[in-house]
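Lecture 7 notes: from sequence to structure.
We start with the chain below.
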Amino acid sequence: MTKFSSILIANRGEIACRVIRTAKAQGYRTVAVYSDADAGAPHVKMADEAIFIGPSPVNESYLVQEKIIEAARISGAQAVHPGYGFLSENADFAVACEAAGLIFIGPSPDAIHLMGNKAEAKRRMLDAKVPCVPGYEGADQSDRVLIAEGEKINAPLMVKAAAGGGGRGMRLVNDVAELVNAIKLARAEAESAFGNGELILEKAIVRPRHVEVQVFADTQGNTIHLGERDCSVQRRHQKVIEEAPCPVMTDTLRAEMGAAAVAAAKSIHYRGAGTVEFLLDEKGNFYFLEMNTRLQVEHPVTELITGLDLVALQLQVAQGEPLGLNQKDITLTGHAIEARLYTEDPAQNFLPSSGSIDLWSPASGVGVRIDSGICTGQEISPFYDPMVAKVIAHGPTRDIARLRLIEALNATVLFGATHNSDFLVACLEKRCFAEGQATTAFIAEEFAEGETSSPEPDFTDSAVAAALQLSLEYEELYDRAVIVAPQLRNWASASPLISRKKYTHSEVTTHDLSVTPLSDKLYKVFNADNEVSVELISTEGTTAHISIDGMQHTVRYMKPRVGKIYLSINSRTNVYEDQIRLDGQQDEVDGSGKVVAPMHGLLLEIRVSAGDKVASGQTLAVLEAMKMHYEIVADASGTVTEVLVEPNNQVAADDLLIDIDTEA
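Predicted structure tokens for the same chain:
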């Protein structure tokens, strides 16, 4: 047996953190690698040591085999765990690790190479008597032969890149007249993505389930399966929600699919963790799709229903130890469902989004597990996959697991980059999914055009945001005051304070609100059609306990900058940006030179005149409000072009006071 005590994780994000957790728990020394974009990432902080491997683009860092091997040499790591993606299914990398004296925690290079080519894998599976989708996987790749074979199969059929995955190099052909163009497009995409234009053709299985079987094999010849996972909920051939076990699975079908998966693994002398993927049609027939020679993204649902740690088993097998498990030892308990949290915009055809994570606060609770690789303050880089976390729930029944997952998604807070949490909840709440009837056509069939958008905030949501935002602004003023009694907050002698907040959520939804403090914590928010009272009972950190017309709620919020606030209320998360500030150019960080009154008050002092040169941050005027003196400062350097008010006059919130030419 070959033993190791230190492991380099050749990956990043969620999976790197996942591997590090188990490895450290078992006493292994862990080494992370990172690019420029990931210098402050959680996986870097979690590891015992971290090695820099280059610029942010993957082909200059995480995909450069020589840099990974050199990082292992420098750190003294004895083994490499590839995670998923990147180099995890690269046979040449596995060879390079072995040549460098490193243990590759995965299958043999031959197994990776064989199953990495869909055509060769399908030929091997046919030899092993594993059921396969009828089609063409021949060596002759001429257009003439592909078109002729496609016509034999007849529509609908799939054109697939033999070396592909993740939906790239794949085309659905609903009419044989489309075949010529589909072949051309699929081949071009395959050559671009994988450097290999080889194609296979398969009969399209209409409305199938995507069901995969987790297999595990040691070096002593023991191969078992750990049950199945249903991964049918997908967009662009990418999985979104996975669960175990499959809702329509029977004991007989599980035994048959499990036996086929084990036969597939044995036929290539497999070792370690692998997943054999099948299409399951409406009649209960299943067909081999492909084999992933690595740990899957969705492995946590298998862990939760089997009670096994798959990463720990990987480390065990990689050292030549037996699994210590037989098929009869595997029992499935309860149900688990996983939702992939992506920073993407479902309303824009799931377009990936980058940006900052202003607040990350994952849920916790009975039966809830969160696997993530992000933290508050981190930037979401455009260079990597947009999946940032997995929210998983386990329960004694499928419906309990489903409800726990909905609750966990609603309680998980990610402020900043656009994400798909609301869409995930919508999927889980669909009757089709709740009844266990989802197929790979689920999203296309269940969501009409435009329905993937998050629900827009209503008047009450915006009213809460306005009250919170105004309260935070007042808090800042109070903190800057010298000596003011707490009971004088929100009080003015001249007239009731009325502040205006205007939030535009879409072309058709704008909430133009007036906010009046009624007491220290109570606000009246109204417009021409609605009125509501919002009481801020207590606030702690980013959590507030509030009352809306006497009904209490707990909300999460954050103010990343002046004029902007995030609010999560009753499972709805939105960003509220005060358009009055934007229109009036009064955001201090805006740098526009338009200086406005932040609130209703008495203008005590003007310290500049037209023609004066001023610097950013310089005090321009003093405003008295709520018995506090508030210094109004320049938000940009420049020359004062106009002073529009005089001292000892009342001004309203958002009144333009001073104009500065920032280009002077």
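Points to note: The chain is about 25% helix and 35% strand. Confidence is low (pLDDT under 50) at residues 583-590.
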